[in-house]
Design goal:
The chain is α/β, with parallel strands linked by helices. About 55% of the residues lie in helices and about 10% in strands. It contains 21 helices and 8 strands. The radius of gyration is 24 Å and the shape is globular.
Length: about 450
């Protein structure tokens, strides 16, 4: 063989990456430019699995196909990059919080088994792809991974009609489509429960609160959706009086934090009336700025050390938390910790919109970005009594006013964030073009927002 022919058969990593980019372009796929390996995957979305009481201890994570912007297309070569990038190099706690499980649709092969032997996968739930053949090798690998504490989830049709039924002992979650004959699917699941008592039923394709409530009423253990808020007890007369005062103070706080120059003395006076708000603001400051522990005693101190913009953001979080917490009796709060999954969504939105505004926004947009993103979801955070209806009206007014002052950037950022939550790739790309930013900026901002929001939740 000639030297030229031998050279032509050898392909360097750089050449392989160039060829992959060219192939993606030929197929009409959108490329995510990366300075690292073309196999590096980017997180696109995070969706909670809710229990009926509103808690979420597992999340479905969806990733790009390496540097190709598409969903549910991960291959064997991507497994290493996901486990190292999201479980090892950056702890999975950053993306889903402590003690939660990450459910990811991954191919089952020797690569996954080898990585599971080296890396901790007890917080990984593998969603078995519908197009993966249940060969004898695959079934053996599932059994081996199960011994390494890896969890598995599977669609009920795939489990009932293929050889995957032979490893039902290793299955932890069974998916049913809530848009189909749910009663029939639940009956099928009941027969599976006799063979494996630990498996749980998960309803998917849940598009609203009513569907989620119906799924729980019919006996599902979990719902995979962003549209769920648990119901809570009514309040007694004393608590209603306390709520009335707090709600009035919240309206004053809302008006201030949407101003370009808030009155921090007024905000400090309101926060000082409520011990839980004082605790929140101090926890947030201490977690984000450990060097200031013990130095902050007044609002003026905080503004001096942190600056007006950062302090305004912290007050926004404190206000949003107060609106959510106000649904609970004081006695009930001590024994029944409120869930804050929708507040997590709001914090992610706030950080994401702020990131985009800092890159592309004018001065007004940068000033309004954080609170606009945060309170874009606050309508679902308050009760329907007369007081909170006034808060809803005020939030809506301030939110719409802030969008009017923006030159469409904040609106486009929220459209993009909503598309990420709904996993609508076409809308993500359209809003990205409208904002004049790259898809890399969007995905990096989203990952940063998840990490930041988990830190904030731990503070409050």
């Amino acid at each position: 063989m000639s030297d030229a022919a031998e050279k032509s058969e050898k392909t360097t990593p750089q050449q392989a990456q160039t060829q992959a980019k060219a192939q993606a372009s030929t197929n009409g796929e959108v490329e995510v430019v990366s300075k690292r390996s073309h196999l590096r995957c980017h997180l696109i979305s995070r969706t909670p699995f809710y229990t009926q009481d509103g808690n979420a201890s597992m999340y479905e994570l969806k990733f790009t196909k390496g540097n190709v912007f598409m969903l549910d297309a991960l291959e064997s070569d991507h497994i290493y990059h996901i486990l190292v990038g999201f479980f090892i190099r950056r702890s999975i706690d950053n993306f889903i919080g402590k003690n939660s499980v990450a459910a990811i649709r991954l191919p089952i092969d020797n690569m996954l088994l080898e990585q599971a032997r080296f890396y901790q996968t007890s917080r990984l739930c593998v969603i078995i792809p519908n197009d993966q053949e249940p060969t004898a090798t695959v079934l053996h690998q599932i059994s081996m991974l199960n011994r390494l504490n890896t969890k598995f989830a599977i669609d009920i049709d795939l489990l009932m009609t293929t050889a995957y039924h032979d490893v039902i002992h290793a299955i932890d979650y069974v998916f049913v489509n809530s848009q189909r004959n749910l009663t029939e699917q639940i009956l099928l699941f009941s027969s599976l429960k006799e063979e494996n008592v630990k498996i749980k039923l998960v309803a998917t394709n849940v598009d609203n609160q009513a569907q989620a409530d119906n799924c729980f009423a019919m006996g599902t253990d979990l719902v995979l959706t962003k549209y769920y808020e648990a119901e809570y007890k009514a309040h007694d007369e004393v608590t209603v009086a306390q709520e009335h005062e707090l709600n009035n103070d919240m309206i004053v706080m809302l008006n201030e934090i949407f101003k370009a120059e808030p009155d921090f003395k007024l905000l400090g006076d309101i926060i000082g009336k409520y011990a839980f708000m004082v605790g929140n603001i101090l926890n947030i400051i201490n977690i984000t700025n450990p060097r200031l522990v013990g130095l902050i005693s007044t609002m003026s101190h905080a503004v001096t050390y942190l600056g007006k913009e950062q302090m305004k953001n912290f007050v926004c979080i404190c206000c949003a938390y107060a609106l959510r917490r106000n649904q609970f009796l004081e006695e009930e709060y001590k024994t029944h910790k409120p869930t804050y999954e929708s507040l997590k969504y709001a914090l992610v939105r706030a950080r994401f919109v702020e990131n985009i505004a800092n890159i592309r926004g004018n001065k007004i947009e940068k000033t309004l970005a954080f609170q606009t993103g945060l309170f874009s979801m606050m309508n679902s955070e308050v009760n329907d009594n007369s007081d909170t209806t006034e808060i809803k009206k005020q939030i809506k007014k301030l939110y719409l006013d802030s969008l009017k002052q923006s030159e469409s950037l904040l609106s486009q950022a929220l459209i993009c964030m909503g598309a990420i939550e709904d996993q609508n790739l076409a809308t993500i790309l359209a809003s990205t073009r409208n904002m004049g930013v790259s898809i890399n900026v969007i995905l990096s901002s989203y990952e940063d927002s998840l990490i930041w929001s988990n830190n904030m939740i731990s503070a409050i």
